[in-house]
Amino acid sequence: MMDQRHVHEPFVFAALALALTAGFGYAAVIIAALAFKLPLGVWWLALVQAHGHAQLFGWAGLFVVGVGLFFLPRLRGTTLARSELAPWTLGCFVVGVTLRAFCQPVVAIVETQMPQASLYAALGRFGTLVSGVVEVIGVLLFVTMIVSSFRRARPLSAAAPIIPVQPYLATAFVSLVVAAALNAALSTSIALRGYLFPGTLDNALVHLMMYGFVIPIALALSVRNLPLFLRLTSPPKRVLLPIFILYVSGLVLRVAGELEQVFGSVGAVLQGVALLTFIWSLDVLLRRKAPWTASRTPPPAGYVETRKPTRRNYPDYGEFGRFELLVISAYAWLAFASALAVIGGAATLAGFPALFNPDIERHAIAVGFITLLIFGMAVRMLPGFSGKSRVASARLVLGTVWLGNLAALFRVAPLFAPDLPGANIALGASGALGWLAVACLAVNMWRTFRRNDKRANQIS
Ligand code: HEM
Question: What's the predicted TM-score (pTM) here?
Answer without folding.
Answer: 0.94
